[in-house]
User: Fold DUF2189 domain-containing protein from Pseudaquabacterium inlustre.
Amino acid sequence: MPDSPALIESRRFGVRQIPLLRPLGWLARGWRDLMRCPLPGLLHGLGLSAFGALLIVAAGQRFWLLSGAFTGFLLVAPVLATGLYAVSRALERGERADLSVALRAWKPDQATGGRLIIFGLLLAFAGTGWVMTSASLITGFAGAPVRSPLDFLRVVVLNDHSMLFEVWLGLGAFLAAPVFASSVVAIPMLLDRPVSVLAAVLTSWRAVQAHPLPMAMWAALLMVLTVLGMATALLGLVVVAPWLAHASWHAYRDLVSPNDDF
Assistant:
């Protein structure tokens, strides 16, 4: 059976070999980019924090909904950082890097913006599915109403007579793992190269399959730093979100290259 056009297109790009601890280098370079051009990143982080606060207000005493909404939003957040990938690319090229560069990445008359919107809609669909699944699990199987973080901790996390928390975590990981593998390289690649959405996703999967341990470390760093940012009443996200976005650009640049670069 012949290979699909998307697979053939994906094979135009090689996957570079990286050492286990390279994700720490991505963090260092991401921090450097944030310090060199802080305004776009801090505005992005402020917007994410404000949206998180809006979620908290909207959910009110329905923490069963808020827990799924927050984790679902994290699935969509990487595509929202596209403007910051453009800033890192400009810094890498020695070009002007400012807020206008970040905004131009989303111009509707550019093919790049259209492909990113398509990918964002796919991620939003996955995030919505998780929100519904999470809410159904907690409302349907929790032994008592879950209206606050303390309720979630007492009724779901620390309940010795229920496997609800383990099931909740397992299903979340089951959804998050393929989303991470599909997007970790694909989103910056869609900004950087004239490639189809499916070819970018296949390249992302190839990068993850070639480096399971470094990419598992990268996923863990993303999760831990994001949780720390959220744990500071969302204020930490103002810095953490753009830091991780800039670092994600360098992850892509380290992992993917045209075959003729070898």
